[in-house]
Amino acid sequence: MFAGSVIALEPRATPTITNIYPFYGKHQQGIATPAQHHTYFMVLDLHTDDIQKIKAMFQLWTAYSANLTAGKNVRPYQQNAYLPPADTGESDSLNPYHLTLTFGVSPSFFEKLKIEHLKPAELNPLPHFPRDQLRQPYIDGDICIQACADDPQVAFHAVRNLVRAARANISMRWSQSGFNSFEGNETPRNLFGFKDGTGNPQGEALEDAVWYQGDNWLKNGSFLTVRRIQMHLETWDRTHLNGQEETFGRHRDSGAPLGQQEEFQAVDLEQKNANGEKIIPEISHLHLAKKVGHNILRRSFSYASGIDPKTGQFDAGLLFISFQKHPQQFIDIQNSLGNIDKMNEYITHIGSGLFACFAGVTDENDYLGKALFDQC
């Protein structure tokens, strides 16, 4: 077992096909894909302005991602036991658990690579919103990787191996693991106990809301907005049920809009009670978000990151992620929430980012960002 021995590692077993989302397609997976139970979200900084190195990095990430999402190692294990294994191995005994990998680039990506002329006009840093208390560790960055799976170790393993392969050109800026628990097709609940994502568009409405159709390299991609939202759970837990429901504008048990019985019933912002008062309060989260009239696809996850050393309370909340064909859809909603959203009493936005997510990789001759890099 020690000096002089050479032991080859065995390749992973063939995974169960029902646990695989196909990597190749018109759009990247992890956007309109049915939500998984776990995410590992990573933001990276570039440390080179050599466009050819970054092109090669995305080509390598494409090959690795195709293997990982199919339940394979990033590369086959080599026979020489005196070299580090080709794959870190923590998923060797696991199937892919519906792993998806989604890649995006920020406005600063184009600045660092000196290709500002290729940056979509819509891709600009998000403005400062009312009540933002952003913290330096959770802002900026040049590239994001969203790994989602029904097992947390599978999601982490994927990001770990992608970062490992690119250490010469990138460094880790911030990351966040997240979780969702739900049965079947139920809408998951956030840490306030309310259903999160009920109003997501479906079918043609989703297609229209999410996929970018501009005449440039981003066509069939999407814009990803990420917000790290700290929830003040201890304050929330002292709030009576009526107050909680008036904050959201929905019933906690069913997820139905106030004044309705079923989760997916139409929202009527003008409905009034016998006293002539609006049933869904005008300062409720639902009212302020809905009145703008925009659709976005919410794909958020809860997080719990221990204890806040400054307060001694939970460091927990929502890793808010949304996809939209234009950042203005999110910006208008967030500005509507503004200073008057009753939810502001219980949350603080501490992280923020905007990324342009490439179109999908169509086949083995394609790679992530090819339409962009072909113009460089």
From TrEMBL:
Cellular component, GO annotation: cell envelope; cytosol; periplasmic space
Gene Ontology BP term (one): iron import into cell
Residue ranges annotated for the Dyp-type peroxidase C-terminal domain, each copy included: 187-361
The record's free-text note on cofactor binding: Binds 1 heme b (iron(II)-protoporphyrin IX) group non-covalently per subunit.
Binding site for protoporphyrin IX: 250
Compartment(s) of residence: Cell envelope; Periplasm
Keywords: Heme, Iron, Metal-binding, Oxidoreductase, Periplasm, Peroxidase, Signal
Quaternary state and interactors: Homodimer. Part of a ferrous iron transporter composed of EfeU, EfeO and EfeB.
Task of the protein: Involved in the recovery of exogenous heme iron. Extracts iron from heme while preserving the protoporphyrin ring intact.
Name of the protein described by the UniProt record: Deferrochelatase
